[in-house]
Amino acid sequence: MRFLAILTACAMLSGCGVVYTVPSVSDGSVFGDQDTGFDVKIVRMTPETTIAANLEEYIPARLPAAFQPASADSVAKTAPSGSTSSGRFPPLNQPRPYLLGVGDVVLLAVNAGATLENLPDLITAQSKRQGFIVQDDGAIAVPDVGRVRVADLTLADAEAEVFQAMLAAGIDPQFTMEIAEFNSQRVAVGGEVGNPSLVPITLKPLFLHEAVQLAGGARVLDPMVARVQLTRLGQTYSIPMERFNTDPAAKRIVLQDGDSVFVGLDTRDQQTERDVFKDRLELGAVERHYAYMTGEIRVSRKFELPFERTATLADILFDATLISIQTADYEEIYVIRVNQNPSEAGGIVAYNLDASNAVNLALAGQFEMRHNDIVFIAEQPITSWNRVISQLIPNLLLSTANIVATGL
Q1: Lowest CB count within 10 Å: 187, 200, 207, 401, which one?
Q2: Model confidence over 45-64: pLDDT tens digits?
Q3: β-bridge partners, 115
Q4: pLDDT tens digits for 252-279?
Q5: Residue 359 in contact with residue 345, Cβ under 8 Å?
Q6: Helix axes 270-282, 71-78, angle to 10 degrees
């Protein structure tokens, strides 16, 4: 009778969920009798699968330019020097017409009225789309005509000069001139932009905000402390980024050949940016990348992935304060990663590291962590049994005693 009562109590405890349930990683999309909605694939961690996992695209979080190892040198070389006018715009002059210069390439587009007899060499060059380069003496070499100086002339004036030179050579052509490549006038845009580069000035006036956009746009961490600095003929105009983005007058600043634009901080503001970044980091206002740990560890926690570089599984596992050596099953260490490919939504890969053979721990030093990875460490079978017993016996004795007392 008492044995039957004990069996009944066991059944009741199991059905009520009092008996310990062991967390585990399972293949497929079904857990017990419930569909999880995930397609889970367990992959054993090997040198080959580690390399494949590391090939998944990942860009670590970046530090501001002021924290870069070479930031002080690069800023010193790139940031404008000389006298500085803080918060003052350069003169808002009217756009000037484009003047041809050394290195520009012009094309002579021959009209239908011209004949092969009149312009054999010129038409041959045009059919091959060969341009005429403005050479270092400011002239272009036109076949059957000679050298014609076009530097420092507008396109219309240069066309007139070539026309007169052809008339002097006994040629009466019908043509138009166009600029194929703008190489003589450029503006250097550097600092915290997407693509530091030399931006050419063309027939269309180049405005300051357009030059920044053509260089990939501003990539500053905090517009509150960043600046756009324009250097022209030894004078630097320093415009706060917030004013640059909001003041309509900033949209009317026309750039000239030889101007230099720097976006970011000068050396005096670097410490300010560092302090602002640290404050934002402490207050949680900076986006961070995390991996997460759970299972047989002393306390579940999130692991901050570093800036500028990737962390490895070893960086997490070899934290002596985390893993419970007495209860963890080193055969079942998993890195659980959600597939980021939208076409495979719901896919999860669980990379299994069998560290019962210590040699396999070398893979942990090669396996790179990704944002939102979850490291799960299963428990040893004996640990599971011990926990079942430790939870079962007190409840079982109490339930049995209640049953017996009721029966009495």
Answers
A1: 401
A2: 999 999 999 998 898 988 77
A3: none
A4: 899 999 899 999 875 555 666 677 778 7
A5: no
A6: 140
- Three-state secondary structure string covering the chain: CHHHHHHHHHHHHHHCCCCCCCCCCCCEEEECCEEEEEEEEEEECCHHHHHHHHCCCCCCCCCCHHHCCCHHHHHHHHCCCCEEEECCCCCCCCCCCCCCCCCCEEEEEECCCCCCCCCHHHHHHHHCCCCEECCCCCEEEECCCEEEECCCCCHHHHHHHHHHHHHHCCCCCCEEEEEEECCCCEEEEEECECCCEEEECCCCCCEHHHHHHHCCCECCCCCCCCEEEEEECCEEEEEEHHHHHHCHHHHHCECCCCCEEEEECCHHHHHHHHHHHHHHHHCCCCCCCEEEEEECECCCEEEECCCCCCCEHHHHHCCCCCECCCCEEEEEEEEEEECCCHHHCCEEEEEEECCCCHHHHHHHCCCECCCCCEEEEEECHHHHHHHHHHHHHHHHHHHHHHHHHHHC
Contact 7, 279 (CB under 8 A): no
- pTM (2 d.p.): 0.47
Reported as a single tens digit per residue, the pLDDT across 286-321 is 888 999 998 887 778 889 999 888 999 999 888 756
The token pair that represents 157 in the structure block:
């004036």
